[in-house]
Every structure is written in C-alpha cells, then in structure tokens.
Amino acid sequence: MGGKKASMSRTERILSLIDPHGYGLEIGPSHSPIAPKSEGFNVETIDHDTREGLIRKYRDHPVDINKIEEVDYVWRGERYPDLIGSHEKYDWIIASHVIEHTPDLIAFLRDCEAVLKPSGTLALAVPDKRYCFDQFRPISGLASVVDAHFAKRTTHSPGSMAEFYLNATSKGGKIGWDKNEVGKIEFIHTPEIAAQKMREAATQNTYNDIHSWCFTYSSFRLMVHDLFSLDLIQLSETESYDTTGCEFFIGLSKNGIGLRLSREELLHLTVQHD
C-alpha cells in the first residue's frame, strides 16, 4: 500500500479521500478544478467570481483559462447553507489550498460540515509551510484559531498581514517546492509593503488574500483533533497523506475515526517537524 500511495498523483490522492461517484461540491476550483464537470463529475462549485470574471482575472496569467468552468455559487461572505439554500446536500467537498486563506478557520469547517451529508467527506489539500513562501512563519496555534472564531473575523488581522508580507519568500524562484530544493532564498515583499498592508487591515474592513494559517502535516492533524475535542467542529480525520512536494492531504467526516496515534505522539511530531 505504501508503494501505491507513493506513486499516486495529487489528483488521485485527493479523489481517494472521497466517493467520486457521489454528488459533490468543489470550493474555489478556479482555473484548476480537481473534479471538473467536463470530466463527468456530478459537482457544483463555489468561487469568488463568475466564470467570466475569473477569465478576466486570469487572462494574462500563465494558466489555462479553458479549464475555468461555470460557477454555480458566487461567494460574498455568506454562510454556505445560506448561499446554497440547503443543508446536508453533498456526499463530498473538495477544497484545494483554500483553508489557509480563511480568516475564520473554524467557521469554514462548520460551513462545510453543515452542507455535507452525515456520511460525507471533506477532502483538503493544504500547503506545508516548510516548503512554500510561509517557511519562516510560525506554525499556527490553537489560541489564534479559536480567538479568530469567537471574534467572528471576516478579514485578516493586522498582525497576520504584517507577518505574511514581512516573511513571504521564494526559493530558487519558486513559491512552492519540495524538501530537496536548494535554490536561493529571496524575500518577496519589502518592509514598507508589510507596514502598508498592516495599516490597511487596521483601518479598512476589506479582504486581502493571504495565508492566514500555517501548518505542517502533523500540526494540522493536531489542530483538527483539538477542535473536535473542544466541540468546536464535528469533523474528524478519515484518512490522510503526509507531505508530498509542498502539500499534504486529509479527509474529514462527521463519522471519521480520528487519529490513529495518541495526542502526545502527535505533539512530539509537531515539535520535531517545525
């Protein structure tokens, strides 16, 4: 099984976490859907703009805009059940490189669990902060995640903006890499930009797209376990794949079995892998 897992593509890993024959929702597929309608998936989508708007946004970027499909629900900050008009609708949800952008991580997970069927699965692809532009940022802790939820954050905090812009780096000209990358490290933004973005966040109630949260494979599994233990979410782990390249993959469900190791063991792994 280990050899089979090692040879799987990222798409295969994500799809292995769900029943792809069920009725699904993909959040933020944009120009790179994991489960495209064009390939026969029975899926609806949520994105931050219409297909036409996404095409305009990415027209001059080095991406294939022909992969941008019709958007079923344009998200403007609503709770997902309100946006979709239904609860417990989907057999699966896919969100690739989405959760780290959310100002309120707990609200995002609760929205997903609200529109999942009782046996449904949320499949996440999450960047490992050690192998992307977040490499010099600290791992996000439980306190910050819980505080953001009870503060009902809908935008990123001034501190998050300062930390992100001060520390974002490339390596070998890349913003995501694997553990064997040996290229030169360069900072992406100046301190002046960081200060500007911090002040804007403090004075303007507008959303700026950054990574609010930074995780490793072990720290994210611990976060999910702790949020479940605190009765803040109903989702627990079903299956997961350790970091490959710059990301890891995890399935969450209301009937997940949770960790297969003790919390203490996972704490030690989190510290070792920081």
From TrEMBL:
Xref: InterPro entries: SAM-dependent_MTases_sf
Keyword entries, A-Z: Methyltransferase, Transferase
Signal peptide positions on this chain: none
Keyword presence, Ribosomal protein: no
Keyword flag Transferase: yes
GO MF, one annotated term: methyltransferase activity
GO biological process: methylation
Protein name listed in UniProt: Methyltransferase domain-containing protein
Organism field: Pelagicoccus enzymogenes
Lineage per the UniProt record: Bacteria, Pseudomonadati, Verrucomicrobiota, Opitutia, Puniceicoccales
